[in-house]
Write a structure and sequence with these properties.
- By secondary structure, this protein is an alpha+beta fold.
- Among the domains are: 165 residues, Roll (Ubiquitin-like (UB roll)); 355 residues, Glutamine synthetase/guanido kinase, catalytic domain (Creatine Kinase, Chain A, domain 2, 2-Layer Sandwich).
- The chain has 22 helices and 24 strands.
- The strands form 6 sheets. Strands 12, 13, 14, 15, 16, 17, 18, 23 and 24 form a 9-stranded mixed sheet that branches. Strands 3, 4, 5, 8, 9, 10 and 11 form a 7-stranded mixed sheet that branches.
- The protein is globular.
Length: 756
């Protein structure tokens, strides 16, 4: 019986002994997180300790872009990391990279090498462990089997993974005691095109650094007290949301296994409407799995700072401390992988789909982004008086200009079939990209634009400067201390919100890599900074650096240019849709419409001019995203067809037959069967409607086989397949409420939500 199978799994999950994981100890004392942090990482500190000083200095010059990595240095590093990895039990190494499929890839190669010795005319083969500089620097996976968007054909198989020296190597423990050395890498084609997410991220980071340095040279004198900034980098903190459900129940849901979301199923009487799950007490099994995950991540140098329950039942979040964006992306992908593996050990399944359950909140990946210098300065820190912090204001208006000019490209960077279920659903930002600054920063910009003093918004008076640390909040309770209040509240409806000293890109999907959205953001801001630099150069004339008056003129110019992108209200409201249209801001509701923005002239020209993408790479990215959208929807359609045909309809037939036999039996002994007949009369039309809609969807999918052009197929999937699937689901969900529970073949939402 299907009910029995569900009950058996629930009973088994409740009866299983807890997995007991202890933190490492030393001399009888449990080690702190800081003591084990990064112990599985071949860090710069570890490298410096194990390499000759000249070799280490050469490597540092290479990382800074001042020197090419030569063979001697590569061989020395390879030997050092091999010794380090073997000491930790490593048997294999892998170039770990990020193909264009929102995942990571790896091919394991053994350190084992056979060496032939010639002794007295005989050959003797001995086994040794070797790892050369050439093996460290690059490897050759089959490029034809990864998404290429037309850059590669099936017979053009050669591609290269190349060590990204900015990301440290690390070891991970696999099952049954295996240990692998991971070498973070980029992935390029035989002709040098980027076939991965990381290559373009590295390019965008370099161009943003170069442009930001030019900006700083224009506005800041260099002297003994102010040394020249040599590097600007973006920082990133990725808040990762996800669901955890029982793995046994997951195994009974074909839709979850194949598509990552439930294609059938309705809400239980209680879900998130009591608002009691957010920040609530974590279920014991979830807390155990999360703690073990954090232990593993700490060893890998991933700085997880926060964990908590999210809004929906069975939904959770972890968030790291901010890092340089290149490493932060690696660490986010590592976090997803470790969560997945550790959840299995606890008989849980992690779901990264943006909308695995209809009717409750979906999951996002909030990307907190800023810019910092090698001097340790955050360029987006307003300081105590932002209206006089011209460096901050110049970089702020550059961000606003970048988002204004390329907001549609930012929307395209987070577009997918799965994220469409979340965006604009009153739980996530809409398809309109706007910027929230908060009332105080808005007042600062308005005051500069209008050439007047800044108003104290609380007192209604004008101030020489405004304190962004905020005010003191009196709680009116003698035993409670006064607390510092921020100058502005948060706007959880904004897709791109300023949150103190950074911007939070809230629209990124939970299962996608942050690389492409951050690449687009870096590029848009770099392009805007070039415009700002041109204006500063023109304004300062022959002066070495721009004066404060010059800076204010340029800042005021860009405040006026970017006013349309600033919005402080409710992004979910219908009024904002109307207002955004008046401002000329695009409202891109569906991904199939967003993908074209990648090839839009203004966006394509910008990305190519900066050297972040080539024309071939841009068309490839467009083709891959469009094709993936069509494939995702088609897979969902075929899955729901199978489920309805093989599971839902048979369950409904069985229940209808049971009702009919019961009614006939009662009638044979002279008892009216009004109740059974009433249910039969309700049930039968729904069964017939479900059969009709399922047949219609099946016929539609057959017709789509004739569409060759991927753009037309994606549009058809959006306009025809999606609505056809909804019609099937509507009838199936009605049956779930009617068919006897003992006959229903799928675990229901209440079981998935509350059995963890």
């Amino acid at each position: 019986m299907t009910l029995q199978a569900r009950q058996d799994i629930i009973t088994e999950s409740l009866a299983q002994p807890p997995r007991n994981i202890k933190f490492p100890s030393e001399n009888g004392r449990v080690q702190t997180v800081s003591e084990i942090f990064g112990q599985n990482v071949f860090s710069l500190k570890e490298m410096e300790k194990s390499l000759p000083k000249p070799v280490f200095k050469t490597f540092i010059r290479q990382v800074r872009g001042n020197q090419t990595l030569d063979k001697v240095t590569a061989d020395a590093i390879a030997h050092a990391v091999k010794v380090w990895a073997l000491e930790r039990g490593a048997t294999d190494f892998t170039h770990w990279f990020q193909p264009l499929n929102d995942s990571t890839a790896e091919k394991h190669d053994s350190f084992l090498t056979l060496k032939t010795n010639h002794i007295n005319g005989f050959e003797e083969v001995t086994a040794i462990d070797t790892f050369s500089g050439s093996q460290l620097l690059q490897s050759e996976p089959d490029a034809s089997s990864f998404p290429s968007g037309g850059m590669r054909t099936t017979f053009e198989a050669r591609g290269y993974t190349v060590w990204d020296t900015k990301s440290p190597m690390f070891v991970q423990n696999g099952p049954h005691g295996t240990t692998i050395l991971y070498i973070p890498s980029v992935f390029i084609s035989y002709n040098g095109e980027a076939m991965d997410e990381k290559s373009v991220l590295l390019r965008s980071s370099e161009v943003l650094s170069k442009t930001a340095l030019e900006t700083l040279d224009l506005i800041e004198p260099v002297d003994e007290d102010h040394p020249r900034t040599k590097h600007v980098f973006t920082t990133l903190g990725t808040e990762q949301e996800y669901f955890l459900i029982d793995r046994g129940l997951y195994s009974l849901r074909p839709d979850l296994k194949i598509t990552g979301r439930t294609l059938i199923g309705g809400l239980p009487p209680r879900h998130q409407q009591l608002e009691d799950h957010y920040f609530g007490k974590m279920p014991t099994r979830v807390l155990a799995a999360t703690s073990e995950c954090e232990l593993e991540l700490a060893k890998l140098g991933v700085p997880i700072k926060t964990r908590h329950n999210e809004v929906a039942p069975a939904q959770f979040e972890v968030a790291p401390i901010f890092e340089e964006a290149i490493q932060a992306v690696d660490h986010n992908l590592l976090t997803m992988d470790v969560l997945h593996r550790v959840a299995h050990r606890h008989k849980l399944k992690v779901l990264y789909h943006e909308k695995p359950f209809r009717g409750v909140n979906g999951s996002g990946k909030h990307c907190n982004w800023s810019m910092s210098t090698d001097q340790g300065d955050n360029l987006l820190d307003p300081s105590a008086a932002p209206e006089h912090n011209y460096r901050f204001l110049i970089f702020l208006v550059a961000v606003l200009k970048g988002v204004l000019d390329h907001g549609d490209l930012m929307r395209a960077s987070i577009a997918s079939a799965s994220n469409d279920h979340r965006l604009g659903a009153h739980e996530a930002p809409p398809g309109i990209i706007s910027v929230f600054l908060g009332s105080h920063l808005n007042e600062v910009l308005d005051a500069i634009e209008e050439n007047r003093p800044v108003n104290d918004l609380a007192a209604g008076t004008q101030l020489q400067h405004i304190r962004v640390q905020g005010t003191v909040l009196d709680l009116k309770v003698a035993t409670l201390p006064s607390i510092a209040r921020d100058t502005t509240d948060r706007n959880r409806t904004s897709p791109f919100a300023f949150t103190g000293n950074k911007f939070e890109f809230r629209a990124v999907g939970s299962k996608q890599s942050p690389s492409f959205p951050v690449t687009v953001l870096n590029s848009a801001v770099a392009s805007a900074l070039q415009e700002v630099n041109a204006a500063l150069t023109k304004q300062k004339g022959t002066k070495a650096v721009a004066s404060d008056a010059d800076k204010v003129i340029v800042i005021r110019e860009f405040i006026k240019k970017t006013k349309a992108i600033r919005f402080e209200g409710d992004n979910y409201s219908d009024e904002w849709v109307t207002e955004a249209a008046k401002r000329g801001l695009p409202n891109i509701r569906k991904s199939v419409d967003a993908f074209g923005c990648i090839l839009k002239k203004e966006n394509a020209d910008m990305l190519k001019r900066l050297g972040v993408f080539s024309d071939v790479e841009l068309h490839s990215r467009f083709h891959i995203l469009t094709e993936k959208y069509a494939k995702d929807v088609a897979i969902e359609a075929q899955t729901i067809l199978t489920m309805v045909t093989q599971q839902i309809l048979p369950a409904a037939y069985s229940y209808r037959r049971e009702l009919a036999e019961s009614a006939a039996s009662m009638k044979s002994i002279g008892i009216e069967a009004k109740a059974e007949l009433r249910v039969l009369n309700i049930l039968s039309p729904i069964v017939e409607a479900l059969q009709d809609h399922n047949d219609a969807l099946d016929q539609l999918m057959v017709k789509l086989d004739d569409i060759v052009e991927v753009e037309k197929l994606a549009i058809a999937c959006n306009e025809q397949v999606g609505p056809a699937m909804e019609r099937v689901r509507e009838q199936a969900d009605k049956l779930e409420r009617l068919v006897a529970d003992k006959l229903w073949p799928l675990p229901k939402y209440n079981e998935l939500f509350f059995n963890i």
